[in-house]
Amino acid sequence: MRARRPRAVPAGLRGWGGVGAMAALCVLALAFVLLLPRTQPHGAPARTTPGGLGTARATQAKADNCKDGDAQNMSPAPSAAGGPTVDAIRSRGYLSVGVDQNSYNWGYRNPNNSSGELEGFDIDLVHRIAKDILGDADKVQFRAIPTNERIPAIRSGRVDMVVRTMTITCDRLKQVAFSAPYFLTGQQVLAPKTSPITGYDKTLAGKRVCSATGSTAYDHLSADKKDGTLPASTDITTTVPNQLDCLVRLQLGEVDAVVTDGALAASQAAQDPTVQLKGGTFTKEYYGVAMKLGADDLVRQVNRTLENYRKDGAWKASYDKWLSATLGDGSGSATPPTANYR
Q1: pLDDT, tens digit, 9 for 90 and up, residues 106-138
Q2: Which residue has the higher pLDDT, 194 or 29?
Q3: Residues 204 and 139: beta-carbon distance below 8 Å
Q4: Cα separations (Å) of 9 from 109, 111, 205, 215, 249?
Q5: pLDDT the model gives residue 24
Q6: What burial class does residue 128 get, using C-beta atoms within 10 Å of its C-beta: 0-12 exposed, 13-18 middle, 19+ buried?
Q7: Is the dihedral of CA 51, 57, 61, 62 positive or negative?
Q8: Residue 48 contacts by C-beta under 8 Å, 6 or more apart in sequence?
Q9: Cα(242)–Cα(148) distance, rounded to whole angstroms?
């Protein structure tokens, strides 16, 4: 069984097609990632205003003396106060958000859903943010953003924010602002069940490993190969714009393993019973909502949403709906991370 690469299909269609078709879709998808028309019946027009949104003084903490595991502590405290960025969004009438449309249970198009709407854990969060800012959960314009375009999309003003399994890191804090963390995960290895690979260890010697360009997975692979943590013979040259493309490469036999966030890897393993997670997670990472540096009022608004999202049980309800089947209720990911504000 090959990975179910989510895509829009007629309502009556069932099944996913062959690997060859999926590989072709990966290429075609690059032509359309810059604009994903929103599918909700009400809300924003299918366009965005050019440029960035307003101006504000930047108070996002710098990454000096920062550790990735504690980077989420750099977020401003939550506040319901408005500001130039939030006011501009309200004036426009919709929220522009960069998301994934190919990550099963996170942000994807379910071909068995006749409405064609995006679904998943990240998508639920986007709707909640839109409701809190605009009073209508459907006033969202979704833009499909590949992994390697997440930061450029924010900095150029193409989107107000990115909600796309994006890890908070010290390096990224120099380029974008982050909300408080909304999910805990870690890097993990995905490989065929029949593979002798046992995890992120010496069994990767001589193996071809795939990761997404601009991902924390590639950052770890590169750094660990340089310092000798990873065998020198491990081939990490295969990188792709979208993380799911690595699974396709794995299915085609072009690579031997994939390194990605454990939460994403679990969802991919759920799609293809011939692959499995190998070993445990070897990092501790937090997902955050990424926004433009200086958009402090928007960061505070999102943090307020996250506070309420955790407290009123909506976070847990979304986890139970989309992720508990693959990650379980006993994992560290099953509980929303605690925000530690500076």
Answers
A1: 999 988 888 889 999 999 999 999 999 999 999
A2: 194
A3: no
A4: 9, 5, 41, 29, 23
A5: 42
A6: buried
A7: positive
A8: 96, 141, 143, 158, 159
A9: 7
Phi-psi sector, 47: left (phi>0), alpha (psi -120 to 50), beta = beta
How far is 50 from 32, CA to CA, in rounded Å? 19
> 3-class SS at 292?
strand
pLDDT tens digits along 166-194: 999 999 999 999 999 999 999 999 999 99
Instruction: Tell me the helix, strand and coil percentages in the chain, rounded to 5.
Output: 35, 20, 45
Q: Find out whether 270 and 295 touch, Cβ atoms under 8 Å.
A: no
Which of 315, 301, 309 has its CA nearest to residue 75?
Answer: 301
Q: Give the Cα separation of 143 and 77 in Å (integer).
A: 28
For residue 339, CA distances in Å to 77, 128, 283, 291, 303 come to: 9, 18, 19, 17, 9
| Identity at 334, one-letter amino acid code | A
Nearest Cα neighbor of 114 from 10, 7, 5 is 10
Cα within 13 Å of Cα(327), Cβ side = 30
